[in-house]
Design brief:
Elements (H helix, E strand, L loop, with lengths): L1 H16 L18 H4 L13 H13 L5 H13 L5 H6 L2 H8 L5 H18 L6 H5 L6 H11 L9 H11 L6 H11 L5 H21 L21
Helix pairs in contact: 1-11, 1-12, 3-4, 3-7, 3-9, 6-7, 10-12
Bound molecules: iron/sulfur cluster.
The site of iron/sulfur cluster (SF4) has 14 residues, from helix 10.
């Protein structure tokens, strides 16, 4: 029952909002486009990205910077890094922590985040192009489950379902039970799509997380707008 509902919700969200094209990349920003999404570097239906280590690294740095802050603030920090020519693993490895701090200030917690980025950069360089295991990422200071899974899913293209506060909020409401255990939620979602081909799973988890974010920002906000929600027939919060 739960499994079917999760599948149905995925398809409804995808139909409503369309492919989201995560994770945004600075070099892909289409300044001439009228589409805000394309302007910001999202790339709907292109699942071949990232296509090199620099893009992987940019996504991983973004995943660290977005801890406890909004994406708008992260974009400012990433822009600073890019404009200074710092958004490369070999450069971040060379610059001092103070230099890094001054560029990532907009993202908040900049002292901690600079330390995390420096440690992660050292790890990333040592990978030498290899895809890290989840356990390895989780052993790095400052990388929790959500950050690790966002790196694995969006930078390293592995089918890990990423859980965040929005996922917990929406599905606690939909199932009318408190859902706050990261591992249980992740297993539930991964189990629902366990029979899909690996590539399909990757696409589903890529889209599903971004669609949940979209719906949480637009409709299932702190104060939910159930009246206008196209999930209301499936949602126990509304029954
Ligand atoms: S019906 Fe209301 S609580 Fe349920 S998902 Fe929609 S906005 Fe959220």
């Amino acid at each position: 029952m739960k499994n079917k509902k999760i599948r149905d919700i995925y398809h409804i969200l995808l139909k409503q909002y369309g492919p989201q094209g995560w994770w945004p990349l600075i070099d892909l920003r289409n300044k001439t486009s009228n589409d805000v999404h394309l302007k910001k570097g999202y790339h709907p239906e292109d699942y071949t990205l990232p296509e090199n280590r620099s893009q992987q690294f940019e996504i991983c740095v973004g995943a660290i910077l977005t801890q406890n802050t909004s994406w708008t603030q992260v974009e400012k920090a990433l822009d600073n890094l890019k404009n200074k020519g710092f958004l490369y693993f070999n450069i971040i490895n060379e610059i001092g922590k103070e230099e890094l701090i001054s560029e990532i200030k907009p993202s908040g917690y900049f002292n901690q985040k600079a330390g995390k980025i420096k440690i992660f950069t050292d790890f990333f360089i040592k990978l030498n192009g290899r895809i890290p295991k989840r356990e390895e990422l989780l052993r790095i200071w400052g990388i929790g489950k959500e950050t690790a899974d966002s790196m694995l899913l969006y930078a390293f293209k592995l089918p890990f379902f990423m859980v965040d506060a929005y996922t917990k909020r929406i599905f606690s409401r939909i199932f009318n039970i408190i859902m706050d255990d990261y591992d249980k939620i992740q297993s539930l979602f991964q189990n629902v799509f366990r029979d899909e081909f690996e590539r399909d799973k990757l696409i589903i988890f890529n889209e599903f997380h971004s669609l949940i974010v979209e719906h949480s920002k637009n409709v299932c906000k702190k104060k939910p707008n159930c009246y206008n929600c196209f999930l209301k027939d499936l949602c126990e919060h509304c029954l």
